[in-house]
Amino acid sequence: MSKNTIFRKKNIQSVLSQSKDGHSSGLVKVLGVRDLTSFGIAAIIGAGIFSTIGRASFEGGPAVSLLFVFVSIACVFTALCYAQFASMVPVSGSAYTYAYVSFGEIFAWIIGWALILEYAVSNMVVAISWSEYFVGMLTGFGIHFPDYLTIDYGTASKAFAAIQRGEQATDVMKVAAAAYEHAPTIFGNAKLLIDLPAGVITILVTGLVYIGIKESRTASNALVVLKLLVIFLVIILGAFYVKPENWSPFAPNGVQGVLGGVASVFFAFIGFDSISTTAEECRDPQRDLPRAMIYCLIICTVLYVAITLVLTGMVNYTELKVDDPLAYVFQKIGFDFIAGVISVSAVVAITSALLVYQMGQPRIWMSMSRDGLLWKKFSEIHPKFKTPGFATIMTGLVVAIPSLFMDMGFFVDLTSVGTFFAFILVCGGILYLDYQGLSKDATFKVPYINSKYVVATLFIIGFGYAISQGTFVEHLQEKPLLAVFWLVWIVLSIMAFRLNFSLLPVLGILTNLYLMTELGVTNWAIFIIWLIIGLVIYFGYGYRNSKLAK
């Protein structure tokens, strides 16, 4: 393929030889399967287990426990594809590198740019969420943190203006307005309103990631152990207060009620892919990365199902539409001490998730820089700490500064599309490599199930069910992106019949694409704007400086 095309690809053998010849010699190989599994658990079990489970249970009742099983199986489709790539291309870069060897440079750049949304931008959300839990924990211990140092300017000023106009105010709005009113002024009339805990925790975690992978590993393992101990405590202690009658009816709102929580439940599993960014710091990545991805998904699924059954057994599902369901159910039975322990563990859980994502982003930037798509500085390895020093510092700044001043709602919509887009390309990459015969040397392979007739059969069943509901046209009008989903399913049915595709990667593509349609047009619009900015940078710098171009 011409070196002057945007679809130029990296050769798998050349990637491996470059890695062995010294590209990865600056990084320390210290991670084993236990460490990688711990990183995966740290990334997956963040704030979600302390909040998402409650709202999903409110919508679907105890049957949401089964939804966690089904969604975990859907995640396994993608995780298996990541695992096969990790065994074939055991270098840093995650989906970015996988796309480079499958579809070419332009897709690699798009994925690398999209992963900034998954890691850096989502960490802004995590940091702001950490601040909320941390301040709430301090309040529980009788320590009051100044309100104007825990909120962004936009939220506070809007709440103050709304109340001044006479609008009906919620308790949250009243707190925000009070923070604005009592905030000190600087530079004349400007109000000092920043989310200080969010910025501070980001800087501290970035500092830990900067000084070494060993230190990060030790901290992550310790935080995960603490987190798991609290979750086991909740499950074991809560089991004694379960009332089986609360599990009846098991699915009070039917299948639609259960599926109503599918997006939030899926988000509770996102994070397993982050461990693939540490491939060059693994002692045996081709063996350990695939195992760790599957292990962490299995462990997290068991914990999610157990927590859901305990929660819906302790209280009626209709009581669980709260932000802190775990603390709520124990307060309800008079265990205020356990509720306090849970609030502390929520802070620990979010800290460990923040740590893993702050590790992932610099290593993706490092891989892109090695390939010439980003400035050379991003690939420099610190001579003492053996980490991508400059990239780590930049990640810290990119996350910390916006988290000080911006509203969490601004970032939430930015994170999801990039994640699903990366998942789809990884699953598609496996289909392409299998078709090209490049998967034969993989030490781990996605189990092959011939989808020749299965994909088309599933399409007929799925499309028939959608039509039979009598609201197909209305759904397309509400979510026009569903048309893309059905069209892709038709195309995959034809290709599967002709090319005997492996079933699991196809199911991974369809699952992630369907969840993308749930995100709405606004999210897609934001993603397209982000993508255009990235393409300007690529054609302005990366295309000409790519090592494949030279």
UniProtKB/TrEMBL annotation:
Name of the molecule in the record: Amino acid permease
Keyword Transmembrane helix in annotation: yes
Key words of the record: Membrane, Transmembrane, Transmembrane helix, Transport
Compartment(s) of residence: Membrane
Gene3D superfamilies recorded: Amino acid/polyamine transporter I
Entries under InterPro entries matching the protein: AA/rel_permease1 (IPR002293), CAT_C (IPR029485)
Superkingdom of source: Bacteria
Domain Cationic amino acid transporter C-terminal: 503-546
Transmembrane segments: 36-54, 66-85, 97-117, 124-145, 192-211, 223-242, 254-272, 292-317, 337-357, 410-433, 453-473, 480-501, 521-541
Main location: membrane
One Pfam family recorded for the sequence: AA_permease_2
UniProt feature coiled coil, ranges: none
PANTHER family, per database record: CATIONIC AMINO ACID TRANSPORTER 4, INNER MEMBRANE TRANSPORTER YGJI-RELATED
Membrane topology according to the record: Multi-pass membrane protein
